[in-house]
Amino acid sequence: MLEKSQQLLQRATKSIPGGVNSPVRAFKSVGGTPPFIERAEGAYLFDADGNRYIDYVLTWGPAIIGHAHPEVVEACQAAMAKGSSFGAPTELEIELAETMIARVPGLDVVRLVNSGTEACMSAIRLARGATGRDKFIKFAGCYHGHADSFLIAAGSGALTLGTPNSPGVTAGTARDTLLAQFNDLDSVRSIFETFPTDVAAIILEPVCGNTGCIPPDPGFLEGLRELCDAHGTVLIFDEVMTGFRVGYGGAAGRFGVTPDLYTFGKVVGGGFPLAAYGGREDLMRHVAPDGPVYQAGTLSGNPIAVTAGLKTLQLLTPEVYEQLEAASLRLSKGMQAIIDKHGYPMTQHRVGAMFGVFFSDQTVHTHEDVHGCDLDRFNAFFHAMLKRGVYLAPSQYEAGFLSTHHSDEIIDQTLEAAEDALAEVFAA
Ligand code: KE4
């Protein structure tokens, strides 16, 4: 079943930490051997042992129009023939910036970078530079990449690995990161009572995608907007995961709350190392070379990555989001029917084409609620689905994603596998 992957993992661990280039890929949370993937196409992954999987990870979000989309492949091949990197401005970068600005509310100016981590750390530096303040508020369970100031009760991999404070992060750094609870405005108010004029920014995932999938309670985002306005604090939506995923205008467009700054990644890079930060013009003009807040990158705005991102956004029309919404609804309604039919202690959330399934009979509103879920059952479900050819995110603390290639037939196959897998899980 996974012999070749087991051999490859044994070899990989000799030369790469854990045999992987990002911790969550090692399956430490769910156990077992991670399939080594040879290729991907549409909604499918194909591993080194010839197994095919319906992919609900989609490289953690980017592959929203499916893997190896022929139009993206063709555009990137043509771009490659012109050279892969110039370290100089190109018209392509303007086109991508203008395309993003045209869709996202309150996005006036945007800077391209190479990863979501880089986008989030740059947005925090900008907020600090523009306000002259040092502290910022993040939320337990929200993940903004691996920059030092974020690895304080981080979500995603760090949380899964049970090491919320990573070694190597200094006490000095940690001192300026303040922690609040998602969907709990009082936890934010109490920080402002202690630090009324010290908080440069609040940064959050408007939909928590790094502790399962947890949508904002009604009024939560609006409350943060009001608190930031009252305290002169910059509101940053980390839309690395939700941007261009949960709707044409991302989460801000979907929920009708506009932040001062955004970060983007994943979908906007079309599967290439491309991310971005941007927002209000008066803030973004602080960024070098317009202003003194320094940020740079050799491969920022790389023409191949920009080609992939631009083609991906061009293919993501409003009609395509309606299709994604319908597919996601089909999956969640099907799952709910299985849960109700068998009376399983499970709950789920869905926002656009991202979702989360929790082994708990309590509605999940906060990161703490996820800790109360039955992680052993999640892990058993993960493996029961994997052996039935369905590749879910290898951690309860991750979200699932759909693409335009997740057809009704593929979703129905997934639901059949899920009913079978859950019977196995709950019979154990
Ligand atoms: P990257 O540096 O991994 O490109 O982006 C960091 C990041 C920032 N903000 C949000 C909301 C994110 O979800 C991420 C990265 N997400 C994880 C998956 N939960 C990436 C997967 C991984 O770490 O391997």
UniProtKB/TrEMBL annotation:
Known cofactor(s): pyridoxal 5'-phosphate
InterPro entries: 4pyrrol_synth_GluAld_NH2Trfase, Aminotrans_3, Aminotrans_3_PPA_site, PyrdxlP-dep_Trfase, PyrdxlP-dep_Trfase_major, PyrdxlP-dep_Trfase_small
Pathway: Porphyrin-containing compound metabolism; protoporphyrin-IX biosynthesis; 5-aminolevulinate from L-glutamyl-tRNA(Glu): step 2/2
Enzyme class: isomerase
Main location class: cytoplasm
UniProt feature coiled coil, ranges: none
Compartments where located: Cytoplasm
Record-level GO BP terms: protoporphyrinogen IX biosynthetic process
Pfam family name, one: Aminotran_3
One Gene Ontology MF term: pyridoxal phosphate binding
Enzyme Commission number(s) of this protein: 5.4.3.8
GO cellular component: cytoplasm
Keywords from the UniProt entry: Cytoplasm, Isomerase, Porphyrin biosynthesis, Pyridoxal phosphate
Modified residues (N6-(pyridoxal phosphate)lysine): K266
Substrates-to-products reaction catalysed: (S)-4-amino-5-oxopentanoate = 5-aminolevulinate
Family statement drawn from the similarity comment of this UniProt entry: Belongs to the class-III pyridoxal-phosphate-dependent aminotransferase family. HemL subfamily.
Subunit architecture: Homodimer.
Xref: PANTHER family: GLUTAMATE-1-SEMIALDEHYDE 2,1-AMINOMUTASE, GLUTAMATE-1-SEMIALDEHYDE 2,1-AMINOMUTASE 1, CHLOROPLASTIC-RELATED
Record protein name field: Glutamate-1-semialdehyde 2,1-aminomutase
Protein source organism: Lujinxingia vulgaris
Species classification: Bacteria, Deltaproteobacteria, Bradymonadales, Lujinxingiaceae, Lujinxingia
